[in-house]
Amino acid sequence: MLFNSLSFAIFLPIVFALYWFAANRNLKLQNILLLVSSYFFYACWDYRFLFLLIFSTLLDYFTGIKMHEAANEKMKKFWFWLSITINLGFLGVFKYYNFFVASFADGLSQFGIERQFSALQIILPVGISFYTFHGLSYVIDIYKGKINPERNFIDYSVFVSFFPLLVAGPIERATHLLPQIQRKREFDSAKAIDGLRQILWGLFKKLVIADNCAEYANYAFNNSDDLSGSTLIVGVLFFTFQIYGDFSGYSDIALGTARLFGIDLLRNFAFPFFSRDTAEYWRRWHISLSSWFKDYLYIPLGGSSGGTWMKVRNTLIIFLVSGFWHGANWTYIIWGLLNALYIIPSILFNTNRSNLDIVAKGRIFATPKEIYHILTTFSLTVFAFIFFRANNLTHALSYIREIFSSSTFTKPEGIRNEVVWLLIVFVIIEWLGRENQYAIEKMGLKWPILLRLSFYYLILLVIFMYAVSSQQFIYFQF
């Protein structure tokens, strides 16, 4: 069930009505409703994988309790590693088995040994990377003594499978979400209206920006051998806006939907394309994943407490793992490596925390220096996304080779002018709202009611005018 589908437009109001009218003031009934709704939402993709989600939930629920009740450290470690091994094992089989088999066969062929290995003909369960990381953070936090295990199975299950975040995040923490699930929730009209506003902006990002950019990006990458370098540059530019509109649009819809039910999810994007360096970019892009790797991998590896070599080593590991998390393809690993190389100079010169606040805070315009740094960071990001989007390394390298050819100085082909204008308006609105949680959070709140409603209806009108056929969100494949 897609957020941008008619079925979700029917599903959400029904669950909302049952939640606040049929189950109102009964926390247990509300949580049961959220769990049943979440399982139905997930089963709409493929009911067979619902059992995998339930098994993963049961595994972490029971191992969490067993760790807490363990009589000694040996038994505590046993239950901990049982959970970690099984969780990562499922993830490895479904997501990475074919990659490792193919890579092993390619490695043997370099030594003249030709072997054929059978690949698994399986579908990647949607959202498996996200709900696996929910469970892993929960188990690790119990093992480290940061939290106690949740004894209420319904509450824990809602934490893992809450439908707004189930298939593409944000990656939640038990310390943040579980207390909200356990706490009585009262309907807050202001919070619900704010949620609807964020959903509206998320739909605009997805249906107008991402899906329209996708058409040109797909054209460029699918026909890169026959197109000019200038066309390919525009293609990867459009892909960059596509993936941002697609993923941050999903996150906006998820956060807004959760707010309708009185729940606040972790923020996942903070206007990353206005970053002045790569370190700032990664504090603003897919925040929940970046912070997850920081807390559960970077810091356990030693973090920044050691010398320069340790910082560089840990940074390389984090970004390589981050690339691999995105998919079983060498292109993602190179994408991660490039971002590591971008950020390492700031670590070496201790400037990686120079830009902690939003750019041009309290000002309408940025300075020439700020604009230069924003454009430089954005250009590096765009270049790395060539590897993220390419089918394989050969495709990525041929795409780059054409960009640096003489054909780059020709006129790009097939650009729709209305999409360019939509992008310009989109960037302006994002810039004006960059100090808020999302771009239109406070835009128009002080306007007369008719003008404010007209603004929202205008966004709806643009969505209906420019929305293309419903496309799956990019991050569902991860």
Distance between the termini: 16 Å
Can you give the mean pLDDT?
90
- Biggest sheet statistics: none
* Secondary structure category: mainly alpha
Radius of gyration: 23 Å
How many strands appear in the DSSP assignment? 0
Q: In DSSP terms, counting alpha (H) and pi (I) runs of 4 or more, how many helices?
A: 17
- Overall morphology: globular
Helicity, as a percent range: 55-70%
Oligomerization: single chain
* Percentage beta strand: under 5%
User: Low-confidence parts, pLDDT < 50 over ≥5 residues?
Assistant: none
Order of H and E elements: HHHHHHHHHHHHHHHHH
Summarize the model shown.
The chain is mainly α. Helices cover 66% and strands 0% of the residues. It has helices at residues 6-22, 27-43, 50-69, 73-109, 128-143, 153-161, 174-182, 189-222, 229-260, 278-284, 287-298, 308-326, 330-348, 368-389, 393-403, 417-432, 449-466.
Outline the structure in words.
It is a single chain. The chain is an all-alpha fold and 478 residues long. 66% of the residues lie in helices and 0% in strands. It contains 17 helices and no strands. It has helices at residues 6-22, 27-43, 50-69, 73-109, 128-143, 153-161, 174-182, 189-222, 229-260, 278-284, 287-298, 308-326, 330-348, 368-389, 393-403, 417-432, 449-466. The longest helix has 37 residues, at 73-109. The protein is globular, with a radius of gyration of 23 Å. It starts with 5 loop residues before the first helix and ends in a 12-residue tail after the last helix.
